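Design job #97: recover the sequence.
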């Protein structure tokens, strides 16, 4: 982060939003007293908002790498949420992933050890992808948090994963963004690091403030104070807020400006050099765009977050959840609320927890966090000691690592003699190729990888079930020089093969080819 010009949000707002109305520079009273009924209503609204946003964006998820045109119809109607519950319940990873952590807090208390969360997460029955999947693999291989989410052990560490799972922390910490950061720490570092972790920390802080303010300019700006100003993540979200001030009538212009500056992914092996982008910075921006331009209108908020594209079910889920915490369940328009009522007592897939039960569990946990934060709870009211946000520590993932090339291997490991590359890092993607007659069984391929003639790692690659590795091999922080990789498959089996697909090469600076301009 050397030589970085740090632009604080206050400077952004002062320069860009002068005369533009409320710029989020207000403050909260030191104490806020609300009835228990209001708190319950807001917590239910927060969980329901996620389900609504996720359901609305479901048909578009990762189908669009650009803005979803206004002429593309996105349906909604009676029994719509029930249809997803019945036919594609896996859509709700935004919710059932959160509930893993809510359930551990419920069973073991607010001081439950990270090992309990890691075990519940790694051995849960649901499928996982990206940073979550690599974290599961790491944990099952004995690489425990926080190492399981660190960028040197998890090529997906800056992906969206914790961002879509951090709602629990803000919901259990009403008015207390520093408490929400605390409950993000151990859990979020199981699968993410740096900007990937910040995505969850920021979302959780916005939830926390949504319980005590209905001013979205204030909420989005104040919550950003939990992120270090030196980070790329902070700068990106501050830019979104600034562009909202400059282009208050065009979310599309803000979308364009953001993608011109931040649309290049350096971490996720699936997203580097492709149109696919599951990076937390990009998807957090799409949550923020929906909240700022939606102006507390439920439809506009989730529609804009959806039409930003990319992870277009997760982003409206977060935006809908934050707005749901502001409005409360009863103030969500009936058009959106009614289809959720139909499933409110049905358990989410892979869980024994319904929407109503999740809200009750979060309410009970929130009462405890309020007490720990210096507040008080009476028979009918809660008094919350609000918190001035404090920045979490600075974390920089993939520092001095830039993608500089890709090698398309596209062949069996037995036919790959040597992979040569110049740089300081490499990630190799893979897949198992199985004959039709090959029967699934408990098989883990063991492959020795030699880097520059020395054994670098023995890769253990389960062929089936949970705990599969997301990538075949990765190594960062190498000397910037020429390197070579060779492989030795220790236990090949008939009927199954390892196919190496592509290798992403990194170096300490971007590669810029000088082309003839005639």
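Job complete. Output follows.
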């Amino acid at each position: 982060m050397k030589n970085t010009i740090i632009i604080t949000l206050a400077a952004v707002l002062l320069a860009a939003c002068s005369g533009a109305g409320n710029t989020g520079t207000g403050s909260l009273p030191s104490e806020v007293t609300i009835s228990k009924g209001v708190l319950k209503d807001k917590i239910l609204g927060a969980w329901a908002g996620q389900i609504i946003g996720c359901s609305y964006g479901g048909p578009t998820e990762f189908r669009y790498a650009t803005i979803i045109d206004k002429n593309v119809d996105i349906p909604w109607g009676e029994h719509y949420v029930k249809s997803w519950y019945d036919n594609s319940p896996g859509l709700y990873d935004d919710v059932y992933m959160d509930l893993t952590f809510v359930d551990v807090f419920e069973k073991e208390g607010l001081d439950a050890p990270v090992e309990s969360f890691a075990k519940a997460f790694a051995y849960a029955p649901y499928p996982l992808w990206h940073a979550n999947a690599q974290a599961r693999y790491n944990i099952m291989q004995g690489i425990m948090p926080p190492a399981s989410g660190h960028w040197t052990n998890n090529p997906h560490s800056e992906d969206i994963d914790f961002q879509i799972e951090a709602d629990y922390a803000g919901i259990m910490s009403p008015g207390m963004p520093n408490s929400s950061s605390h409950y993000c720490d151990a859990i979020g570092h199981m699968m993410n690091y740096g900007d990937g972790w910040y995505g969850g920390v920021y979302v959780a802080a916005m939830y926390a403030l949504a319980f005590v303010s209905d001013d979205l300019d204030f909420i989005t700006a104040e919550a950003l104070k939990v992120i270090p100003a030196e980070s790329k993540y902070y700068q990106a979200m501050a830019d979104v807020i600034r562009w909202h001030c400059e282009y208050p009538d065009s979310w599309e212009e803000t979308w364009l400006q953001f993608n011109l500056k931040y649309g290049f992914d350096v971490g996720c092996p699936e997203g580097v050099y492709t149109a696919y982008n599951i990076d937390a910075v990009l998807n957090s921006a799409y949550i923020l765009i929906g909240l700022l331009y939606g102006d507390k209108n439920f439809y506009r908020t989730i529609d804009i977050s959806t039409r930003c594209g990319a992870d277009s079910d997760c982003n409206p889920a977060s935006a809908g959840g934050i707005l749901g915490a502001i409005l409360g369940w009863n103030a969500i328009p009936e058009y959106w609320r009614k289809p959720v009522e139909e499933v409110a007592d049905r358990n989410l897939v892979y869980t024994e927890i319904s929407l109503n039960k999740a809200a009750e569990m979060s309410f009970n946990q929130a009462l405890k966090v309020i007490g720990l934060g210096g507040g008080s709870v009476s028979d009918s009211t809660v008094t919350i000691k609000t918190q001035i946000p404090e920045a979490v520590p600075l974390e920089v993932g993939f520092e001095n690592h830039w993608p500089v090339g890709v090698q398309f291997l596209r062949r069996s490991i037995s036919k790959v003699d040597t992979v040569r590359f110049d740089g300081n890092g490499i990630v190799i993607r893979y897949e198992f190729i199985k004959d039709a007659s090959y029967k699934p069984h408990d098989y883990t391929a063991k492959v020795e990888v030699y880097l520059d003639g020395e054994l670098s790692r023995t890769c253990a690659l389960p062929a089936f079930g949970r705990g599969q590795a997301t990538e075949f091999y990765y190594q960062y922080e190498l000397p910037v020089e020429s390197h070579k990789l060779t492989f030795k498959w220790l236990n090949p089996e008939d009927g199954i093969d390892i196919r190496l697909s592509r290798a992403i090469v990194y170096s300490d600076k971007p590669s810029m080819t000088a082309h003839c301009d005639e």
